Amino acid sequence: MTKPATTTQPQRDASEWSRLMAPYRTPNPTRSLFEVFVTVAPFVAIWAVAWWLLSVSMVLAVILALGNAAFLVRLFMIQHDCGHGSLFRSRRACDWLGRVIGVVTLTPYDVWRKNHSVHHATTGNLDRRGIGDLPTLTVSEYRQKGRISRILYRLVRNPVFLFGVVPFYTFFLQNRLPVGLMRSGWHYWISALATNVAISIVLATLVWLGGWHVLFFVFFPTMLLAAMAGMWFFYIQHQFEETSWQRDEDWNIQEAALEGSSHYALPRILRWITGNIGVHHVHHLASRIPFYRLPEVLRDHDALANAQRLTLRESLRCATLALWDEKGERLVSFAEARRLTA
To answer: To 10 degrees, the CA torsion angle through 246, 251, 255, 258?
Structure first.
């Protein structure tokens, strides 16, 4: 069994917790600008140094580029807050900053924002899977699949494929089109295609100024490692044993937000790099809380600090979980599913 060490559940119900989050929703414009600056400035500086190092040592350049993935992950988290309109009071300011960052993260902002809003609106709902989440079958659904379908599902849920191949596919290929919104109007096509044009200009400029080796040994290592890290964090936010999945008639958005999202209790440096996204149960309860104010919630409410708590070591065991057991109401591995009574 891969059960994480979650502790006591909050005594208040989810709707009451949601109301208590209201005072934390107000952003501090100065703090928001500071967070953007201390992320963008080191990111650009490290890229510049890695670029220069190519003339000294290609190995050192690649190592530095890989390290810069930390700041790219943080940039994506800032883009994420922009998508929720939580970084600034101005929706316009959030959107345009998000679009600019989306060029660097290879993520068309308006497409991502719409799909991510669907994720928030349907998380933990077994009857509304498919957009903004990871493929997750119930044990009974998996048993009803044919042999080929089972093999394909096991491939998709294999950690090597999920955290190696899928990040590359998502950020380098899938994001080039408004996947999930292909028939939802021109707005999303403009978002995807305009982002593609901007990315092409940036990449062409890099090649023109520094040659193809800048692209392959500075740009790609940073992007790929950041994409892989991002996929892991997205996975662990909802794919843990004691998460929550319900059929539509029993599903409640606030309960799903609180009970179906983890509190990833990371070391301080990783909390900073990931923009406190590990405080995911609170984020789903109140997505308008700026990322830098999420620790305030945990400081003021011990029950939330202890709910759905998952340490870094415990989280590693969650990588093998793959099927939702509706009877036991927990996520299980393929091996555990075989031992369950049909």
So the answer is: 50
